[in-house]
Amino acid sequence: xxxxxxxxxxxxxxxxxxxxxxxxxxxxxxxxxxxxxxxxxxxxxxxxxxxxxxxxxxxxxxxxxxxxxxxxxxxxxxxxxxxxxxxxxxxxxxxxxxxxxxxxxxxxxxxxxxxxxxxxxxxxxxxx
Length: 128
Known about the structure:
two-stranded parallel ribbon, two-stranded antiparallel sheet, 5 helices, mainly alpha
């Protein structure tokens, strides 16, 4: 899974995770949430390093901003970072196991299509 897909999935998975499901489904969602949050934390730590390296701390606000002359390099490095593949042992759940009584917004499903399978089908991955 690309880091960019992982970051897109993070919020949707958290929203999905606040719904009550059978225990097996809940365990899979909780495991995926933990793995994705750990990987997102690693991404954020690396992103902060890039900002610090290419930026300057504002003495008044204490915030670091990327210097204008480093903006293109910052964009290139962030794009490279988000395009990296991460290998996570993510669980899938079947639509049948989720049950038909749950209503889920399409934007949540869109970012979690790697996790949800229909009977006899493999999960799909977003293509870029």
